Amino acid sequence: MKSALVIAIRNLFGEKGRLLISAGGVAFSVTLILILLGLYFGWQLQMTRFLGSVPADLWVGQPGSGDLSHSISILSISTQDELEQIEGVDRAVPFSGRRGGVEINGNEVALYLIGLEEGGLVKPYAMEEGKEIPSNGEIVIDESLATNQGLAVGDEIEMFDRKFEIVGLSSGGNILAFTYAFISLDDLNELMEFEQFTNYFMIQTDDPIGVKARIEDQFPNMQAFEQEVFLDRNAELIRETFLPIIAVLVVIAISVGTAVIGLTIFTATIEKSREYGVLKAMGYFNHQIFSIAAIQSFASGLIGFAAGNILSPLIAKLAASYTGGFVYELGVREIAWVGSMTLLMIILAVLLPLRRIISIDPAAVFKA
Q1: Whole-angstrom Cα distance, residue 30 to residue 222?
Q2: Which of 196, 191, 143 lies closest to 164, judged by CA?
Q3: What is the pLDDT of residues 42-98, one digit of tens each?
Q4: Torsional class of 350: left (φ above 0), alpha (ψ -120 to 50), beta (otherwise)
Q5: What does the alpha-carbon distance between residue 120 and residue 132 come to, in Å, rounded to a whole number?
Q6: Which DSSP string corresponds to 181-209?
Q7: Is the pLDDT confidence value at 222 over 90?
């Protein structure tokens, strides 16, 4: 008699249509779960990607500030020299930016303009194309904005009655409510009449806790935020509004996906009942028949899981090419978790029809 492995492989690839259905059901379920998980973790990272790349140990602003989206901080630029005199402060650098609406191609677009200068601490998170530090009359925009509005390096956009040439496309600057854009600090100060002021001071120090206490003691009208706290405050908006929605969709996707995986494998196993009866009549024992069913189920499940891992980043990349708001990112841990869940569902789907397989009467099969 042929071994269980040989029979399982022959059955699996002998009926390609059935294999396509069972592996395809697993593949699409895994793809759905991975894409939604990728969106969840992608946006979780995206919110602090740009600010987290700024090499600042402390951010100093007005009391109650610390969130670029919902708070205002305006400080005198002359405070920079005083901050640099505080014990433990290595460097104090202004951070100037302003959020505003701009009309591009007839659409209202929300931007957060940040002023850059050569040798400063701030720069775009990552450059995809073009120039990193814009000169006067130039602007670097996020690639998501370029995708959504059909813009490219060399195009011009008009803001506050001035035209700016797009000289670079960056990434990591789309945070849902707006996208970061970068112009020269001179242009920002001129547009906003902001020469004597700044929004925050970025502090570099080896003693952030001690320097924070000294700054707040010497300047009661200022508040210093450690980098982790500042990032957390800026991620709060999406963490409390958008991510819970994605989390609900992830739970639904997992529930539906696991049900589809289980049902697909279960149905594929049950449909083989007549063949298992024939094998019993040929002298195969129950444990051999169960081994055949298990091998077929695990093989089709693993093929589907592998296909889902190939499909999900391809679909995410395609979606991102049409909308810049599609942020997908998954690590090995998340993929391994989905793999473990898929494996568990395959095991359950194989075990559920076990009693039926064992109780198959060969005589009844031939009578039918």
Answers
A1: 50
A2: 191
A3: 888 888 899 999 999 999 999 999 988 888 899 999 999 999 999 999 999 999 998
A4: alpha
A5: 12
A6: EEEEHHHHHHHHT-TTEESEEEEEES-HH
A7: yes
Token pair recorded at residue 367: 């009578």
pLDDT at 4 (0 to 100): 61
- DSSP letter at 60 equals E
Distance between CA atoms of residues 93 and 264, nearest Å: 60
Decide: 227 and 267 in contact? Cβ < 8 Å.
no
As given in the structure block, the two tokens for residue 360 are 């198959």
In angstroms, the CA 110 to CA 102 distance is 6
Q: What is the pLDDT of residues 125-169, one digit of tens each?
A: 999 999 999 999 999 999 999 988 889 999 999 888 889 999 999
Query: What tokens were used for 155?
Result: 């195009």
pTM over 0.85: no
Q: Is 132 exposed, middle or buried (0-12, 13-18, 19+ CB in 10 A)?
A: middle
DSSP state of 109: E
Q: How far apart are CA 303 and CA 297, in angstroms?
A: 10
Q: Which two tokens stand for residue 358?
A: 């064992």
